Amino acid sequence: MSTAILTGPPVAGSPLEGDLRALGFDIRTAQDPASAAELIAAVPAHERIAVVDPRFVGHRHTLRLALTDPRFPAAAVEGALTAQPAARATLDRAAARMPVGAGSAHLTDVLTGTLTDALERADIGLQRIEPGSLVAAVPLTPARREEAHEAVAAVDEEAVRLRSAVKSRDGFFTTHCISPYSRYLARWCARRGLTPNQVTTASLLTALIAAGCAATGTRGGFVAAGVLLLLSFVLDCTDGQLARYSLQYSTMGAWLDATFDRAKEYAYYAGLALGAARGGDDVWALALGAMILQTCRHVVDFSFNEANHDARANTSPTAALSDRLDSVGWTVWARRMIVLPIGERWALIAVLTACTTPRIVFSVLLIGCALAACYTTAGRVLRSLTRRARRTDRAARALADLADTGALAELIARPMRGRGRTGSFLAPAMAFLAAAVLLSAVIFEDDPASWPTVGLACCAALLTGAAVARPLKGALDWLVPPFLRVAEYVTILVLAARSGAHGALPAAFGLVAAVAYHHYDAVYRIRGGSGAPPRWLVRAAGGSEGRILVVTVLAALLSPSDFPLALAVLAGALGLLVLVESIRFWVRAAKTGAPAVHDEGEPA
Q1: Residues of the chain falling short of pLDDT 50
Q2: pLDDT at 387
């Protein structure tokens, strides 16, 4: 429930009370600061409360933004503020401290502003809403009130609401080919009571049907798959726009949206590989390579962003050049398209699926994503080398969590802690050497499924432990997680491909998918402010170095015919472990009222 307290008698003819009731607020009236404090204290602490000046004039959507957005513990706009349970104690104390008695009646006129300032000083995460072209005012004279009403009438509130439903930074294809009509689909869904989570689920189901069509291996199936994949992407855009349009943000929704995006794309890769196999073309290695490349690109994005999430003095000549390029209109879209974001990527996949073959789809995708990865990674390396920034403990902790090292690396790193210089290039150098030593063996050895490879996997584990032995605060330490992901994923791919066994590559696809889900889940927990997965889960999953060792041992110990079954069993066990714990965590987070989140960052 939600309660709105009007800090004075209602203004005759004002639509304010109707707007508040339409937003789901129960209205109570306070005549002075003392009665306002009593009413605030009387509202149960687990409920949202709003304090509104009855003279407020503005659009209903301004009130919606200020009073109903679940992402902020407290929010305010001129003449109105709200506090969720996390900020209620602070609001109660601020209201109780308001002067009462003779000479304090005038404080009623400034009560909302005084309480807002108190919440801001308390540093509880108050969000001051900028209405933009919308109106939010507290006029004190009839003339000013008339002007405010004219300003309200002059703005098309619904048009503003629709525009704000579209993500501010998006790719060219999404901005110009999808959002112009998907925003209206979002409004249609809102008016029929559909939730973003329902639309997200519909998008997943559509993509899975598309994958099933691709798996038929027929030209008609490929055409239907391409069309359904584009429809799935339209729904994928719609769920976020619906969340922004109706402010239905949630912890569960953010997790579902991010997780389902990856599930849709990688399930579609599997469908294409199955369809190609029906036509006699084995492209499982290409499908797994595409999944590995895309996942590693995401790891680079996540690691770089976390390393610089709260960096101070975050400037560099490279960043300055980027800002200057952004001032030239066409370069903005060109640079967004170069990185092949989800809109451009899915459009490319859909068109190529309908018109060509799965082998061409994966070949073009691998080339495009490889060029995009080189472009983005090179730019981030240059920024890191040329900026003067002090990395924080939080950033170092996030990078260590993203490295996903297990008990073996912990054991190796323990005697090294406190030695060496934090902030040098030692950590990324050790991670790079770990990947290079391992991949050189599995790629160039005549028989990688051997005990010498297991020995080199042990050497890679030693180097991995050395890489994470010190806090990851160096300029390029954000490269440690990507190097470790490349080592693990590519090792699985090459060992499966070189075994020559039937079913080895599909089993490897499943294993990498399970591990990738574990890594994505860690990212979404960190982004949501919930911390990384628990250490018991990381240790039970083996850590990156432990899983590499297990896979190399299985390859050396088992015959080629038994290796695929071992990979499939490992994939099933690991997938079940991380999926059950992930679902348990996110369901509990949603039930316990964890802060709602929503991703407004770069398109994935």
Answers
A1: 601-603
A2: 73
**pLDDT score at 252:** 83
Give the separation between CA 167 and CA 550, rounded to whole angstroms: 43
Model confidence, pTM = 0.90
**Strands 48-52, 57-58: pairing kind:** unpaired
**Contact indicator for 36, 95 with CB cutoff of 8 Å:** yes
Q: Give the Cα separation of 138 and 112 in Å (integer).
A: 11
Q: Report whether 496 contacts 567 (CB < 8 A).
A: yes
Given a contact cutoff of 8 angstroms between Cβ atoms, the answer to whether 292 and 512 are in contact is yes
139-to-100, 302, 372 alpha-carbon distances in Å: 25, 46, 53
| Residue 601 pLDDT | 46
Q: Residues of 88-101 as b/e, b for ≥16 C-beta within 10 angstroms? A: bebbbebbeebeee
Residue 518's nearest CA partner among 570, 461, 479 is: 570
pLDDT of residue 602: 45
Is residue 248 within 8 Å of 238, Cβ to Cβ? Answer: no
* Token pair in block for residue 207: 């993509």
Among 467, 459, 428, 464, residue whose Cα is nearest residue 441: 459
473 residue type, one letter:
K
State phi, psi for 496 to the nearest 5 degrees: -70, -45
- What is the per-residue pLDDT for 308? 84
How confident is the model at residue 229, as a pLDDT? 97
Which CA distances in Å does 347 have to 177, 226, 267, 334?
Answer: 10, 8, 16, 16
Q: Where are the alpha helices (DSSP H) in 339-391?
A: 342-355, 358-386
Q: Which of 445, 440, 443, 447 is nearest to 463 (CA)?
A: 440
Model confidence pLDDT, tens digit, residues 82-103: 999 989 999 999 888 887 665 5
The residue length of the chain stands at 604
- Round to whole Å and give the CA distance between 190 and 180: 17
The 10 Å Cβ neighbour count of residue 317 is 11
For residue 409, which phi and psi values (nearest 5 degrees)? -65, -35
Sheet-wide strand order for 25-29: 25-29, 2-6, 48-52, 80-83, 74-77, 126-128
**Per-residue pLDDT at 482:** 97
pLDDT, residue 316, reads: 57
Contact call for residues 37 and 83 (beta carbons, < 8 A): no
Residue 598 has a pLDDT of: 54
DSSP 127: E
